[in-house]
Amino acid sequence: KAGVTQTPRYLIKTRGQQVTLSCSPISGHRSVSWYQQTPGQGLQFLFEYFSETQRNKGNFPGRFSGRQFSNSRSEMNVSTLELGDSALYLCASSLDIPVNTEAFFGQGTRLTVV
Amino acid sequence: EDQVTQSPEALRLQEGESSSLNCSYTVSGLRGLFWYRQDPGKGPEFLFTLYSAGEEKEKERLKATLTKKESFLHITAPKPEDSATYLCAVGSDYKLSFGAGTTVTVRA
Question: Are the beta carbons of B43 and A4 separated by less than 8 Å?
């Protein structure tokens, strides 16, 4: 059974640009969550989607946004990139509410802002 | 706000030297406590979910236990391949709140 797929694996962007990251969940999983991981802050929750609806959002500025498509694939977008946005962005999929069932993570997208 | 604290930050063990990792938490309504293992450059790998105080789960050399305020991950007779960062997370409100992790290094 295929796992969670995130693309691209690595990205280098310039300050002020925008970026779109993609996540394909495990087949049959309808919940997709996004996390930012940095050495200083650890894993921070960005948002969670279920059946194309955002159910919860973390404490990140409006430059961070996301969406989910009818096939459960999800994208997150970061506009007007800042140096501090450099991080590993992780996507997790689960059957339903991630606190009720196991959440499985992808390999992540390593974003470097220069 | 949910808070998760893991200790110690780092743990260096000799192969075969058993030890325990601690995860203490403050959450308004615990929906589950999760343990993950993360290797460098990779996403977290799911290990266990615990839902109620007194619950225990085992997988190979790992055993997780849960009380009302903390969880322990016991590593019995570790091997070098057990070297990783172990993350604890609590679930509430459609999200997981993670601790900073414990980095375990097992020397042969």
Answer: yes
Whole-angstrom distance, CA of residue B26 vs CA of residue B29: 9
* Residues A84, B62: Cα–Cα separation, whole Å: 36
Report residue A25: phi and psi, to 5°. -75, 175
**Which residues of chain B are within 8 Å of residue A56 when distances are taken between CB atoms?**
93-95
Helices (H), chain A: none
SS3 per-residue string spanning B3-24: EEEEECCEEEEECCCCEEEEEE
Question: Among residues of chain B, what percentage have pLDDT more than 70?
Answer: 99
Q: Are strands A42-50 and A31-38 parallel, antiparallel or unpaired?
A: antiparallel
CA distances from B20 to A2, B7, B9, B50, B73 (A): 33, 9, 12, 17, 6
Of A100, A106, A107, the CB nearest to B32: A100
Q: Which of A70-79, A98-107, B52-61 is the least confident region?
A: A98-107
Give the CA-trace dihedral at B7, A91, A94, B98, to 10 degrees.
20
The answer to whether B94 contacts A48, with C-beta atoms less than 8 Å apart, is: yes
Q: What is the pLDDT of residues A7-62, one digit of tens each?
A: 999 999 999 999 999 999 999 999 999 999 998 889 999 999 999 999 999 999 99
Q: Collapsing DSSP states into helix, strand and coil, what is residue A81?
A: coil
Residue B107 DSSP code: E
Phi-psi label, residue B100: left if phi above 0, alpha if psi -120 to 50, beta otherwise: alpha
